[in-house]
Amino acid sequence: MKKGVEKQNKSRQKLPIFKPLPLPTNADQKHPLLTANKAPMHAPAFKTTAILDESAVGRPFIIHARENDPNRAFGLPRNLWLEFRLLSKPYTVVREITQDVAKLLESAQEKSSSNTRVVFTGRPGCGKSFLLFQAVEQCLQQKWIVVYVPRAVDLVNSTTSYAYDIRTQTYLQPWYSYQTLLRMLTVNKDLLKNILLREDLVLEKSTLPKGTPLTIVIETALAEKQRSVAQAPLYLDAVMKTLEGQNQYPVLLAIDDMQTLYGKTAYRDPQFLPIQSYHLSLPRMLLEYASGKRSFHKGAVLGAISASRTSHPIPLELRDALDLHTEEYPIASPYDKRNKSLVEYADGLKAMPVPEKLTLEEAVGVFEVWKGQRVFGRSNFFYDEAFMGKYTESGGNARDFVWKGLLATLDA
Amino acid sequence: MNTLRPSVLQPFRRISSARTYACARPFSLSVRQQDDFARPERTEYSKPIPSSPNFYTTRAAFYDQLTQLEKAIGRSEAYLRNQHLLPLPDFARASLPPLQPVWKDQIEMGLEFRTKMTTTRYRKITKLLNQLNDFQRIAKTGGCPELEDKLGSILELYESSKKEALLSRGKRKPVVLDEYGRSYTLGKRKTSSARVWMIPVQVAPKNDTPESLLGVLSPTYPVTTTTILVNNLPLNQFFPLPADRERVTRPLKVAGALGKYNVYAIVRGGGTTGQSGALGHGIAKGIVAHDPELEAMFRRAKLTRRDPRMVERKKTGLAKARKRYAWVKR
């Protein structure tokens, strides 16, 4: 029995990170076998002023690591995470639509978030998640408070604990709420310390008076982990309510995999019936912001659907709201049953179609990034032909261009 | 001596359509016989003279023709000898331009000669015809137009009506571009077939700058891209596997024509490998149609060749084409 336990623990151990041995002093430093595999590519930093320039379209930019990196705190969608693991640094290419989103956010800065509720739509692999990540990065640089949900599917696939709450008649997700608070604090620490709690936060054994800075509120929640995990939904609710009311900073709520929130979840009630997503505390909160039932004084709600997630097809209610009735979706009849609550939660969302094809200059930017990483090619390699070939084969689709083109080819 | 005498080749005539059996007699004979019975005193009268010297061979038409052919051979040979064109050294004979004859087949020839055309008889005729054909080639090359014409008029009587069709069999029909410069080609692989339409990408050069307008700088051309639509879907949506996609674009890469053409294709039958192969084959043929200079290169790269490999048949006693049943002791 004990042996088995030990074995399990062993397999759980993380693989150590590869570290190259130091070279002997008399070694030829420039020998191709001894140089590092991934040469750092020089690219300008991803800054809003830089990316809004006309010449920025199709150029790769680098996202420098910071203390409050959103991709470290909130995480990333799976595809992006993998891509950044393969690249030596997180590179990203500015597209025309990136500039459009930047302008949209600029105009949203002074308006209520209910005015700017946009969902990125498009075919699988056209770059919706990347665009959302770029928007998050831009907002952080422009002193927005950012709440990023890179994998909304984790809110509904029954991977975290849940408990029924009689007061709100919803199922609370304490552990996820706790995590969200922690992440919000890591990313937005500098701004949250200037925002004060608007109402008293009454907890089980104590009360946090109004006027407490939000950083203190969240730190209190984090300090007593054992007890506060259960109360994390309360903390989160208070923090979000305060963010709604304040008008010092705009707030960005970015939700990837947004369509997973519209529908039944994998959580079950005591009768073993699937729980609706709007009966779970966190998805309900996100849905309320998305539908404009709740809104931030200043800010925006951005979402992205993930069209390649076959386990969660885009529900009819969301398709109606975003007007997604092209031939790539199954034909929807007006007589098909729609959930009225979900129709309300999807009401007023605007679709922002991401272009299906990378333009030639955008594709050149992506190509330069991967070429700089030396993932393919050799000496005397025809890079022009490889580029044109992969662009033609992928039909301009960004994911196919990289994953099924540059990284999958045996040409080079 | 060098002039062609009119008697060298007698006017070659077709056999009259009257039936000339050895046993056939004029109908009047029987009337005469009746008269003979009617008249008491019988008079001696001679046999009718046969219309052909080959009358008693029972195949007069055939042997008449044969004789005439032989005569023609003899006379033309004599004429060519007179012209010092015969005997021809081997190297000269080898360098003669080919003149591919297609004779009437055995059945057609049988109808012509009104004889049962056995293989032996047919071979006899074709041997003579081939000989005459050789003489015609020599006459043509040697500069004897009169003889050539005469031989030609003889030989054309025996040439098959389907000569053109038979000679063009196995040869590829040339692809014709339509009024918009589109090519339409057919590609095949395994059990798949692809209909491919290709059109060159049309882009106007950028002539905005004053230098280029004045002709100081040559106009710049924007980089164009190829769009491939398969059954109305982009290539990446129709073929999810990278290997299939690369098979489709290979001819474009070999020709260095990526970005030069737009392709629209309809594929039917088979699986993804077959369909992508068929599409590649069709595109290769299309490129050759647009750019005939690439024909030899594509042939050598075996891009325009239809891959003849098909599914290997199942054999009796085996589980599949090659797989054997497991050995069982009992």
UniProtKB/TrEMBL annotation, chain A:
Entry keywords, A to Z: Mitochondrion, Ribonucleoprotein, Ribosomal protein, Transit peptide
GO cellular component terms, semicolon-separated: mitochondrial small ribosomal subunit
One matching Pfam family: DAP3
Keyword Ribosomal protein (UniProt): yes
Gene Ontology molecular function terms on file: structural constituent of ribosome
Compartments where found: Mitochondrion
Region (Disordered): 1-22
UniProt family annotation: Belongs to the mitochondrion-specific ribosomal protein mS29 family.
The protein's name in its UniProt record: Small ribosomal subunit protein mS29
Gene source species: Pholiota conissans
Organism lineage string: Eukaryota, Fungi, Dikarya, Basidiomycota, Agaricomycotina
TrEMBL record, chain B:
Protein name as it appears in the record: SSU ribosomal protein S9P
InterPro entries reported for this sequence: Ribosomal_Su5_D2-typ_SF, Ribosomal_uS9, Ribosomal_uS9_CS, Ribsml_uS5_D2-typ_fold_subgr
UniProt organism field: Pholiota conissans
GO annotation terms (biological process): translation
GO cellular component, as recorded: mitochondrial small ribosomal subunit
Keyword line: Ribonucleoprotein, Ribosomal protein
Molecular-function annotations in GO: RNA binding; structural constituent of ribosome
Similarity comment: family membership: Belongs to the universal ribosomal protein uS9 family.
Superkingdom of this protein's organism: Eukaryota
Keyword Ribosomal protein applies: yes
Pfam family, one: Ribosomal_S9
